[in-house]
Amino acid sequence: MNERYQRHIQLAEIGLEGQKKLSQARILVVGAGGLGCPILQYLAASGVGHIGIVDFDVVSLSNLHRQILYTDADIGKNKALCAQKKLQGMNPAVSVKAYPFRLTLENYREILSDYEVIMDGTDNFQTRYLISDACVLLNKPMVFGALYKFEGQVSVFNYQNGPTYRCLFPKPPKAGEVPNCNEIGVLGLLPGIIGMFQAMEALKIILNLGSILNGKILYYNVLEHRQQLLSFQRNEKEIQKIIEAGTPEVLEDAPCETPILSLQQINSPKDYIWIDVREVGESPKITAPFPLIHVPLSEREKFASLQKETRPKIFFCQSGVRSQTAVQVAQSYGITQCYSLQEGAETIRYWIKKHYEREAD
Amino acid sequence: MKITVTYYGQLTEITGTASETIEVDGNSASGIRELLNNHYPKMKAIPYQLAQNNALLTEETVLTHQNIEVFPPFSGG
User: Fold this and answer.
1) Cross-chain CB nearest to B54 (options A151, A172, A230)
2) Helix H segments across chain A?
3) For position B19, which CATH number holds?
4) Structurally, how many domains does chain B consist of?
5) Domain range spanning residue B15?
6) Mean per-residue pLDDT for B35-59?
7) Taking burial as the number of CB atoms within 10 A of a residue's CB, which of A160, A293, A304, B43 is the most buried?
8) CA–CA separation, A342 vs A146, rounded Å?
9) Hey, are the CB atoms on B46 and A120 less than 8 Å from each other?
């Protein structure tokens, strides 16, 4: 192993001992998207011995400008499994475990318990708050990163009794108020930069180097190169609430609060109006022999036109996450009988094909 | 007192500016929050934080600086 990591070992601050620590380290990356890709690549290249990847989503063409682990050939494949394969090719000495499903209240304990540092590469508040609370309950540091267009945030939560995400933002914004990259776009390089800052913090934690972003949040604007390093305090009340509950706090807009339908529950697709809330240009394109309209989540004010619609409404997207937000937004317009479809576009396309082949028989 | 507020992320779009000078009654963080929420009702839906001198303010903090920064949470990844 020494030759591969020679330039690490040469650094007095790392040395052979530090490199050994890295090879024994266990780091979990939740979300293998824009932030997750650079995090995973650098952790694997650095020789972090045990890497876990949680992601339920599949690669789509509009991911490729920023999720640089993947290629055109990966479109439609699960990200955790794809990333696992790529990383093992990059550095066979590293063991990589894929969890190709969603992190939930039911499985977080089992998954997170196996790792010493938890990296947040997610793109939604539900999972961020889940990870933050889970890290409090399981006493793990969380390396956080998040993006907005040309700006990023980085911090380390719950490190040596430091503050958590809830100490910074006790309550999430109302559903749909803070858009994510799929809805508003993001400069492809930005998650690369922010993800690398996160990977750096993880290595510093393992190697006990420098000062960790503990109780500090870095705001970075790449257009102006404006940086702000802000300190914030532990909010004992928020932390105690989670510890006393003994379970992560389910957000108001958590998946279980949104009416969810699965394709298996749908017998007569034409009795519903189907709403594709993906942005223009996302693939695969869905066409169907039943009522289907396209209203991107970024143009959510157009949902208001559904107020007169009497049929039950099925919202769907690429993976079943944005469609939940869409249901909440629609409900806020007073629209009733709204369901979020559990499955994503790729599965829907396949299901439509199957369903209508069967009817034709 | 007169203070200069600098906005981040989505708040620059809600307010239509990256920075502006406002006149606040009193000298508390909650006073600024009330003023901003009245002036920009859309900010009410966003749990933003205020900071002075590179430290986040709590609601009770007394303003000692004339430059205040206003930070929202980000969602993307």
Assistant:
1) A230
2) 6-9, 15-24, 36-46, 79-90, 108-112, 125-138, 165-168, 181-184, 189-207, 236-245, 322-332, 345-360
3) 3.10.20.30
4) 1
5) 2-71
6) 92
7) B43
8) 25
9) no
ipTM of the complex in this document:
0.92
Which of A148, A153, A170 comes nearest B10 by C-beta? A148
Classify the phi-psi angles of A271: left when phi > 0, otherwise alpha if psi is within -120 to 50, otherwise beta.
alpha
Domains of chain A: residue spans and CATH: 6-252 (3.40.50.720), 258-360 (3.40.250.10)
Asked if B51's CB is within 8 angstroms of A146's CB, the reply is no
Examine residue B45 and state whether it is found in any structural domain, yes or no.
yes
A227-258 pLDDT, tens digit per residue, is 999 999 999 999 999 999 999 987 654 444 57
Percent of chain A with pLDDT strictly greater than 90: 68
Tell me, what's the pLDDT at A252?
52
Q: Contact B76/A148, CB-based, under 8 Å?
A: yes
The pLDDT tens digits for B56-76 are: 998 778 888 889 999 999 999
A181 and B76 in contact by Cβ < 8 A? yes
Distance from CA of A128 to the nearest CA of B (A): 9
Task: Note whether A232 contacts B73, CB cutoff 8 Å.
Answer: no
| Residue B10 forms part of a structural domain | yes
Q: How confident is the model at residue A325 (pLDDT cuts 50, 70, 90)?
A: confident
Distance CA A130, CA A215 (A): 19
pLDDT one-digit tens code per residue, A307-319: 888 899 999 999 8
The reply to whether B41 falls in a domain is yes
